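Sequence only, no structure available. Ideas?
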Amino acid sequence: MNFRVFNQKVLEPGSMWLMILGIIFLCQPWVPLLPEWSVLILLIGIIAFNVALHVPPPEPLVHEDDTGPVSLTHVVKGDAGHG
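Reply:
I predicted one. Tokens follow.
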């Protein structure tokens, strides 16, 4: 798994969840420890999301069969170039 795939599957959704948790921790009044750490959690989520947005998405894989014929003359003659 390269970094682009890791970014798309883990980093981007994880950073979104960190931002959501930071907002929830900031607004809840029951556990006094959570509002103390909410700004840090929210800030880490925002920074991770900015990093995730600047990484380009993974390039799609193209099979040989999906590329089609090499030239138009092979299609007209009926020779697809397969051995």
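The CA atoms of residues 71 and 77 lie 11 Å apart.
Hope that gets you unstuck.
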